[in-house]
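Input structure tokens:
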């Protein structure tokens, strides 16, 4: 581990937990102290949660834009699919800490470093699902649309993308949950997101902070997944009709 990524370890001397203040639960380092959560929500947990949401949104939006562009190109030129899958697959297999290690000398201990790493982990998932969705549109549907006089742009936006939407949203769901999880590791680069209270709790062996921050991370993933499911249903009402 380089000096850059070992910063969180180097900055912190051996930590002696400060449990002398607060409720008896906090002083005894109980399993979960609701009073600590109430006292530290606005100052610690809420800011970390908002930072985590920002990290996730930026990574997923940028990753979606890049993957969609690549998927469209590969959809038109089939030979592009293999090299894109190989390149994005290589990025996906790099351990997160190793990728941060490679990026820090270039972009420093910045949010840019964290976002580049997070975006790279979305590309394979999003690209494969987007391409699978576009490729899965039946040929007879395309032929019928062309026979009706649709231009290539109209064919894409009015026929192919709506039919590919379930596969695309499935990729978005996986990529979003993946980024929410990996964003906790970004604490080794920037002191932002839910990884910060998790790391602090691990250093102090403070159970409440660890459980609260971890629970917020899990809850965020569940809520994001549910919202994407609702978005898919709103954008493709015909799928509900077909099931019923």
């Amino acid at each position: 581990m380089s000096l850059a990524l070992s910063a969180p370890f180097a900055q912190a001397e051996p930590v002696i937990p400060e449990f002398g203040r607060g409720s008896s639960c906090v002083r005894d380092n109980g399993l979960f102290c609701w009073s600590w959560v109430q006292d530290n929500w606005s100052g610690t947990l809420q800011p970390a949660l908002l930072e985590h949401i920002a990290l996730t949104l930026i990574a997923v939006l940028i990753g979606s834009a890049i993957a969609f562009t690549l998927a469209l190109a590969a959809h038109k030129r089939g030979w592009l699919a293999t090299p894109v899958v190989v390149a994005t697959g290589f990025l996906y297999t790099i351990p997160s800490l190793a990728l941060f290690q490679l990026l820090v000398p270039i972009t420093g201990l910045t949010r840019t470093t964290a976002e580049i790493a997070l975006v790279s982990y979305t590309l394979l998932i999003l690209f494969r699902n987007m391409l699978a969705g576009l490729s899965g549109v039946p040929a007879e549907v395309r032929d019928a649309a062309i026979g009706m006089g649709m231009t290539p742009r109209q064919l894409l936006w009015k026929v192919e993308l709506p039919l590919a939407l379930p596969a695309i949203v499935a990729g978005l769901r996986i990529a979003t949950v993946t980024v929410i999880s990996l964003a906790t590791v970004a604490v080794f680069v920037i002191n932002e997101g839910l990884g910060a209270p998790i790391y602090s709790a691990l250093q102090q062996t403070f159970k409440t902070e660890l459980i609260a921050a971890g629970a917020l991370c899990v809850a965020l993933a569940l809520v994001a997944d549910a919202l994407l499911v609702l978005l898919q249903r709103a954008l493709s009402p015909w799928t509900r009709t077909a099931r019923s």
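The mean pLDDT is 86. Residues 34-76 form the longest helix (43 residues).
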